[in-house]
Fold:
Amino acid sequence: MSTEENKKLVLRWKELCWNGAQDLNLVDEFFTPEIVCHMAGIREPMRGRAAFKQLLASLVAGFDDIHDTPEFLIAEGGMVVIRVTAGGKHTRVFQGIPPTGTEVTVSNNEIDRIVEGQILEQWVGLDMLSLMQQLGVIPTPGHGSG
Structure:
């Protein structure tokens, strides 16, 4: 695939999954069966579509109105780098945190390695610290009690 086709693939994944109905079955279309996902904060890479779907399900479980807004996209060969601003509303339990009703916005830097029209490997740098601060789990510097 060309660099432009790789960029379109990543943008299409973001649009259909994150800005759509969060249909995790789309993983089968966009990712190889051997997908390896390296995510900041997770010690071992997630391997295979089933594990990857579980990871994604855990990330969307507590939120409604999820959307990704691409800020920029860079590609070279089979590698695509995308930076997005992700947002949603915390309406259900998320990682043990009761719903807060908070509208959250976090940045995500992602690198995708594409082989034969599917994503084979992914590196994700989702700003979980900011998310936890927005949900009130971790104090924001300068705003703690003390």
